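User: I'm designing a mutation panel for RAP domain-containing protein and want to avoid disrupting the core. Could you give me a predicted structure to guide residue selection? Please restate the sequence first so the numbering is unambiguous.

Assistant: Good idea. Sequence first, for numbering, then the predicted structure tokens:
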Amino acid sequence: MNTISKYVQYLRQIHILSSNILKQRFTINQKHQFSTNINSKLLYVSSSFKTMRHASNTISQSGLSNIDTTNDVLITSIKNAKQTSDVIQMLRLHNTAMSAPQHLQALNSLFLLQKSNRTKLSKEELTRSPEFTAMCRKIQNYSRNLELNDVMNSVKCLSYLGVSVNSNIMQMLLQLISKMINDMSLQQITFLHFLLKELSSCPLVDALKLALPIVFETQVQYKLEDNLYWQVEFLNYIAKHRLSQETYDFVMSRIIKNIDQISPKIVQSLLLCLYYKHYSTEKYIDTINRCLQYYMNHLEYIADVSDLDAILSRMINKYSTDSELFYNEQFINTVMEFLMKKEDSFEILAFILKKLNRIGYVHHRLLDYMTNKLTSKHDILENIKFGVLLSYIAACANANYVPPGFEELKPLILTRLNIQKDVLELPWLVATFDLAVLGCWSEELLERVFSRDFLYGFLKRSDNIYDHIMLLKLYQASKTLYPGGYKGSFPPQEIIEKSIDIYQHNINDFPLKAALEHGLGGSDYVLTGVRSQLGHFIDHLVVMRPGGYPVAIKNEFKDDKSLFLENIVDASDNLAIGILLYKPNSYVINLNCLRGPYMLTNKTIESLGIAVLPISMDVWDGLIDYEKIPYIMRELKSKADHNLITE
């Protein structure tokens, strides 16, 4: 009863606000009804208006639904009008004798003609014409006998034509709607809410917007019809207006019963509803996968790029925030093949790639395809937007993959970047680092992004933690991996120190520590939280001698903030192994490997003289406790054996 009480309170406010308007309209209605009867009798004398008068006299006092207008010549003429001026002319000639259906048809025709640009009048010119004003007065007179659909359609037409929500006719129609709200079907509620979104704010509109979801939720339990199309439409309404999980689940239970009726028209909307972020939908994963399979089977008939983009966006968001269950690799692979088959533009493909980069999805054939587009038509690279180019570069970097033909593109890419070098808002550090992953180095570009003026301007944004981390990684890569050694200037030391502090701040969780210490024979064999002079942070460091045997190092090197990785490497002839724990999003989602940027960081660490052993947090957390020590020892021995053989 709480929701009903709230709803009643809204509508009581509505009725109080416009009670005076209703009284005034009722008086006007009586006067105009008398005037219309007189005019109808006068027109009866003229034979040319006999048919129109007959239709006028058939108005039922109970509403318009009982009126047969199939033989109404004037309604037929209005429907067949080619221009808004034709309807205006008919209103000018016949307005005083026209019936409610005729006036409603005139309004609807004006709406349709204006919408299809079959007019010489602007909306403002049309609504200010005396004929339009007279028509609105007539509709106000009939309004008390209009059915709900006629009232809602009139609101739709008047709104599109630009009639103010505060005008007399709009206020009258909205007041009538508020009185009929309990009698609305679920379809009418959803359609009305759609109409109200287009209207300016006023007490009636605001109250109806608040009331409609409440009415919908209280009535859906007994008004929901057994029709899959409408069930999905209502689920969409529930999701958009954030109604309760209970209501969502109720409608979903009906949808599942009718899922065999799924059609191309329905499947897109249903998938979008199932990926809505505000609802728990893991329990419907079987239904989701079934819909995705249907979608793949009918891809050529139902999908365009905007549809695919919408579904991929929702899927990726749901995967990122809720559960890995929502990731469907088969669907994404099928979409990529479909886009290549369609030969969509480079921009469209890059737009899709930008979303897939978020989850580390890699498709080598697509990257080959896009690279071929760039090499075969250089004007594409010259004209594409900067963001489009960055999405392509990031996708190649994520894959740690240099497509055939990319070497040819390197100078063209650097030239393209140089054109927008003064646009500070662009993600220069990420772009430069991604290019480094692909072996595309530019001293000029590094000089610019490392300069004091650039960095003080670029890093002055409040949300700059990621930028500091990217600067640090780019600095490390330039120091260790630049071909032939980087001879240019480096970032100011105070900025690098700040980036190191940000990167290493509050790192105090070491899930591997206990297993390593137990497996290696004690804490003397493991150093935790080791830093390099370049700002690297290694979770754990162990030293192995030939044969894969650990060396006790803690007595020689005490845990000390002044101790750096370089000190340990220089003091030992044995193999030092740095162990790094990587989160799931550090990996390519559809391949068993790290993303390119993380692999480049590992290379910068290895350049300091140690081997790097990456451990997946996802794999580690999936192990049972008694499996963890044997697993980490196998990985260490394998890394040690491989490196010792290589040496």
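For picking mutation sites, this is relevant: The chain is about 65% helix and 5% strand. Confidence is low (pLDDT under 50) at residues 1-8, 14-69.
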